[in-house]
């Protein structure tokens, strides 16, 4: 048994870490990993960026120096990213675009400068302090439209999932991100903005980045980033207002401008971090520990559902279930908590 525990510990260190967003969805096709998406430093480790002031917050390619093929997509069409290991942490999501300077192939461009505009988000849902939920959690893919008004040209598309499970301290938020290379065709005459730089867009002190999502439960949530750009000349109109879309292009623009951006979320959920149901005879109270390395094999079970039988023999040293109505959530490799 001791040998097994040691083996499990090593396994956890190697593979417990996190996730990546390595593949572009374009033309309705789920393309190969790292074909149109620049290979990120964490392609093996899956580790996040936690320092918003370093260049890696842009495309996370400092050690890979990778460039990719460039996918051709039509303005107004829907593209996306897949996450082979689902976005299993509670967090929020942003998508940014940046146009390569005229005459520069996007494959030769690093995306530096105040060039990034934000086109899509999946934020957190709050209700005044009763609950906070994260609709992007556990997604295996994320799709979103390229605004129809986007001018034709070559762009980087940067997706980031900001995991907030340990964001209660500065530098605790975890940025899982990658950049795809696309060429937008049949574009419009919009002026994307406002523009921000990476690094520069975030200080790390934003209320949506430096936040304790557990206690007290936040009454409201402020999505990090500049206002969304969904077409036309400036930033998006306030949610709920009607915008006049003069473009003759597809109705996509109208939809985005006038409805919640959540409408186009693809909800593909393939894993669960809940471990209620397994039992050691006792349950943990609210905010109590219900798993983690050295606690039980339960953490591994939640990461590797199909491989669970392999680890059933891990020693139980504490409760793995939560008192009703709470459920067990994996915060990191070492700690799972009831809430
Ligand atoms: C909630 O709203 C208040 C008042 O606008 C603001 O100060 C605070 O930062 C917000 N909290 C979050 C987590 O966004
Ligand atoms: Cu993680």
UniProtKB/TrEMBL annotation:
It is an enzyme of class 1 (oxidoreductase). SMART domains: fCBD. Residues 228-282 are annotated as: Disordered. Belongs to the polysaccharide monooxygenase AA9 family. Keywords: Carbohydrate metabolism, Cellulose degradation, Copper, Disulfide bond, Metal-binding, Monooxygenase, Oxidoreductase, Polysaccharide degradation, Secreted, Signal. One of its GO terms (biological process) is cellulose catabolic process. PROSITE patterns: CBM1_2. Its cofactor is Cu(2+). GO terms for cellular component: extracellular region. It holds the Pfam family CBM_1. The keyword Signal applies. It catalyses: [(1->4)-beta-D-glucosyl]n+m + reduced acceptor + O2 = 4-dehydro-beta-D-glucosyl-[(1->4)-beta-D-glucosyl]n-1 + [(1->4)-beta-D-glucosyl]m + acceptor + H2O. One of its GO terms (molecular function) is cellulose binding. Its EC number is 1.14.99.56. Residues 1-17 form the signal peptide. The keyword Oxidoreductase applies. It is found in: Secreted. Gene3D superfamilies: 2.70.50.70. It comes from Mycena sanguinolenta. This is lytic cellulose monooxygenase (C4-dehydrogenating).
